[in-house]
Hints:
Distance between the termini: 38 Å
Oligomer: single chain
Helix content: under 10%
Low-confidence stretches: 5-20
Order of helices and strands: HEEEEEEEEEEEEEEEEEEEEEEEEEEEEE
Shape: globular
Structural class: mainly beta
Mean pLDDT: 91
Amino acid sequence: MKSKRMKSFVLFVLVLPLLAGCSQSKLSRDKVDFGVVFTSDNIYKTEILWFEKNIDNCQRKKYHYAALGTHFNQVVDDGKELYLIPEGIFNTKDTKKVVSFNKETLALSEYPFEHIALNCTAVINDNVYAVNTLNDINYIEKYNMKTKESSQYKQKGDYFESIIAVDDKLFTIVKKDNGSKNVDYNIYLYVFSKDLVLEKNIDITKYGQVNDKYYQDDKDIYFTIGLDSFDNQVGRILKISKKDYHIEVMTTKEKMPFDIYFYNDKFIITHYDPVSCEGTKVSIIDKEGNEKIYNLHMDLCSTGIYDGKLIVAGKDKIALFSIKDNMKKVAEKEYKIGDDLYLSNILLVGNNY
C-alpha cells in the first residue's frame, strides 16, 4: 500500500534562495520571528532563512541534516520547542533522531531513537514520540527527555499515517488494507495513552483520509480532509471531541483543505494538494459557517500565521497577506536560484500569533 509520503518523492525540487541582504553572519535571535526551512534528501544539507515579521531582515544558517521536515506534516509546537524529523538520505532514511529548535534561543537539541525511517512525531510533557512503518511493521517509540529511557508499541500490518498529542493522549490515524470491496482501504482513529497503551479504536472510513494538519482547543480537535477513501477530492473538516470522541463534519466550498488555523474567531483554511503541489486558494469561515474564498495566486505549500498575517512560502518567493484586510498582499520577497534544495516547513518562533 502506497502512502502519501511515498508519493511525495515526486515533490517539486526547490533550489536554495540566496536573498539579497540575507546575512550569513552569527544568528541574531532578537531579529527573528519565523524561519523557512530548505532541505535536501540527496545530501546532508539544510539551510534555514530566519526572518523578522515584516520579512525585511533575513539571516541564513546552515544545518547538517537531510530531509529535515516535510510539508505533509505539521510542525510540533509544545510552547517551548519546535520539533521536526530529519529522515536522512532518501534511499536509506537512517537518521534515527528527532530534533527541536528552542523558541527563545533557537538552540538545537537532538533526541535519539532506535528505528530508521521515522516519519512523524509528537510530544507529551517530557516524552517525545516517533513513528516508523518499514517492512509492514509499525512502531511507536517513546523517548523520555529526562530519564533518557525508551519504550515502544509494535503492530504488524496496517499503516500508521500520523501521530498527534491531544492533551495526555496520542491520536493516531491508521489505514487498514483489509481487502474490502466497498472502499480502497479502511481508516481508523487509534487512541493511545501517553504510555503507549491502546485505549480505543474508531472506524472513521466514511469521513475520508485525514491530513496530518490540525487545530485543537480545550474541547475539540479539528482535522482537514481533502480526499475520501476512494481518493476523490472533497472539502471536509473533521471535529472530534476530546472528551467522548463524538465526531462532527464541517464542509468547505473549495475542495482539498490542507492547513487549518483559528484566528479572531474564524477558521482559516488553505486549499492545497500536497502530492501534486497545487493550490492557491484560502477560505475564511466564521462561527455561523459563512465562508469567503480568496485566491492568493501563489502555491500554498508552507504557510503560517504571525502578527495578523498569513505567511506563504513558495518555490520562488515568500509573501505576507493581511487577514483583516481580506487577504491583501502586504509584503513579498523573491528568491534567487541556487543549490539543489526543496522547501519543507515554516518555523514560527515568535509569540505574536
